[in-house]
């Protein structure tokens, strides 16, 4: 247990781990094949790797790294659209830094910037709004990205733009929603995931209730989890206790941040500005019904898709890219033929190699030992 | 971007929607509208810690939680990323 000493409360961590081993030993089917538990959120993926948690878990638990990294699931077609917008005259294209290196079919935003497009990294959509105020003769586009965690911030920014009567600010909305995505994963033929760690900060916004169908309809436990190693271990314990007892419930390990009902003000802003899209394209996962949002009527003057007649072409992922299989938990990153050869964090082929929260990048940076053990 | 960063709210501007947070000593304008509840008057958030996502305070937390979260962010290497992003945008406050 070389990592446990680094934890905030090593004694407690040891206790939880011991309990985890005992409970899993009490579940007969875990001896035939490991219980598959998916952490939905990329933040959890990152934490699991950083602290080497997989190496501490009983053999009867296998972690499956889910699709919860918004940068990783951004399809190439949308990156191409960004570049088309950024190449228009008089456009300042603003984005979170995370999205700069995501490969499009021809180039990334970083390359577009090097070629002379005015692409600016911002920390907050509020900064994009400030750029719009300062540059009344430019059209300022903000690349809105992320799950429900960042959706309220974009919604509130659009509302602010409307209040100020700004006519040169646009949102290129690529926000995605977690619930339809989890449903799509649960509906995959041959889906073998036994339980879930629910995303902490998405849940802080949407609350616990939207996950109920996972327990009631799919009969799988879900525990909303925090990001500390101890949070993750405790949440895993809560999941396997449910599996041992034959229960399927939605529980909240992260109650210190996640209120049962979520953040009502944030959700009200989201519902005011956005409505569900019929379909949204995900890298590797294809089109998922109702998994994205778009700008509602009443705010359409801020919609970059209308202002720039974005084509939203569907672009196939590169042949060698197996991100989709990895996202579904069907393949481990090192099973992908591109892994570590053509595809590295410096030269990413697939999106899972771009962000530190992507499973491939995490394995590449932290997980080499595990790769050899597993391979 | 998804994990957020803890900051201490040090100023609430008129109207209450915007304020200033100190994030590891860096002052940054933040939107505060998501942390109010009916029983949480606006001035009362001054001095509170909040989890700040892309410039929006999303949830009030206690100081202990704030310190622990900063520690984790540092250990997984996201603290620097977040601080760089804040610095790059300028701390319009
Ligand atoms: S190694 Fe690269 S191409 Fe293969 S699944 Fe991972 S990110 Fe995708």
Automatic annotation (TrEMBL), chain A:
Keywords: Iron, Metal-binding. Pfam families: HypD. The keyword Isomerase does not apply. This is Hydrogenase maturation factor. It comes from Alteromonas confluentis. The keyword Metal-binding applies. Belongs to the HypD family. GO terms for molecular function: 4 iron, 4 sulfur cluster binding; carbon monoxide binding; iron ion binding. InterPro entries: Hyd_form_HypD, HypD_1, HypD_2_sf. NCBIfam families: hypD. GO terms for biological process: protein maturation.
Automatic annotation (TrEMBL), chain B:
GO terms for biological process: protein maturation. It comes from the Bacteria. Coiled coil: none annotated. InterPro entries: Hydgase_assmbl_chp_CS, Hydrogenase_HupF/HypC. Pfam families: HupF_HypC. One of its GO terms (molecular function) is carbon dioxide binding. PROSITE patterns: HUPF_HYPC. Belongs to the HupF/HypC family. This is Hydrogenase assembly protein HupF. It comes from Alteromonas confluentis.
